[in-house]
Amino acid sequence: xxxxxxxxxxxxxxxxxxxxxxxxxxxxxxxxxxxxxxxxxxxxxxxxxxxxxxxxxxxxxxxxxxxxxxxxxxxxxxxxxxxxxxxxxxxxxxxxxxxxxxxxxxxxxxxxxxxxxxxxxxxxxxxxxxxxxxxxxxxxxxxxxxxxxxxxxxxxxxxxxxxxxxxxxxxxxxxxxxxxxxxxxxxxxxxxxxxxxxxxxxxxxxxxxxxxxxxxxxxxxxxxxxxxxxxxxxxxxxxxxxxxxxxxxxxxxxxxxxxxxxxxxxxxxxxxxxxxxxxxxxxxxxxxxxxxxxxxxxxxxxxxxxxxxxxxxxxxxxxxxxxxxxxxxxxxxxxxxxxxxxxxxxxxxxxxxxxxxxxxxxxxxxxxxxxxxxxxxxxxxxxxxxxxxxxxxxxxxxxxxxxxxxxxxxxxxxxxxxxxxxxxxxxxxxxxxxxxxxxxxxxxxxxxxxxxxxxxxxxxxxxxxxxxxxxxxxxx
Length: 476
Hints:
By secondary structure, the chain is of the alpha/beta class. 37% of the residues lie in helices and 14% in strands.
């Protein structure tokens, strides 16, 4: 499992990525002055190694340089210099600095951690703890470090799904009967996919992308704008840390769309990953299992945080399942309990149909994980041959449970086996969204009837990024 999603990696000639390869820089050839000019050639072996052969037929294997995070951030192909500076502020070193400032009294931040479900499951497998127990012990650990609140991100995920349903239903009802298929709505929760779309396809593809914020950024709005009202504290005093399954989420948190210049408030101040949480635990030589359990905090006052729960459907949040089910009910009066997908060319691309008794298809949804499937989908859209109504897109093969910053397999475990364990754990948890009554209670207390305020905090915009000569534009 590579650290970055496919959109931030280079690989073989037939595609930009494969899940098993790290991003690499081209080999460097040092030119040495010689008495007379000679010729040399470089060939690429089947295993990807580089061999230099000089004019005498002598062969020498060249070193393949592994790219570092600094190398990646310095490349303008995927990440701008401004983004790289912001990402440097999102690390364990920065966390330790904030904790130290708080303990020294030099600053008084109100530190809030928000935990995504995928890191919880990854860490639970690593420490052999049931997810709810893991989350409670992690809460104790983080509060011992200096955190004031530790929240489960499930509420934000459910809000994101509910708004995704509303957005799809609104667009679906706008269709004219017998009219031309308008193309699919594409989910926007994956920043790796969004980075690729904005920087490679720009304005052409943006109208198809959902404008609903991801769970991380809805959680940012909740923590920075809803929570201060509930606790009567200054939003600027809150330092918000999210625990996420991939490094791409650091890019998302760094977007200017999620920064308020007037108040100098960023919705998410720091993103740390499953791997970085493990480093925090190891740095303190902590036996996580020996810690006492502490209940997670909950955003809605007077309500107790439930046990760790998941949504039905994929390990990336279940967007496709939930939108499909509600659309079937509200538009076609069909109650769909068990959604069965058909796997197409590979396990990371599958579809589900809703058909009438006469066999006609009225809904066609898909899940596309991994960059190769994303590329194929986009090409179909360009050729006007894509008849999907909705596509759940994630840049990482197998989706978010296989995020680039999830913990690595140990011992004889393979990545495939570990992912199977994570998927089984995810499916085995209590699968349900927070009740609409609870979500309505939250949104009414936060927005009242102000639709403009609701749209401001739950929706965003995506933008074309000026194209340049970069890794994503290479024509092999």
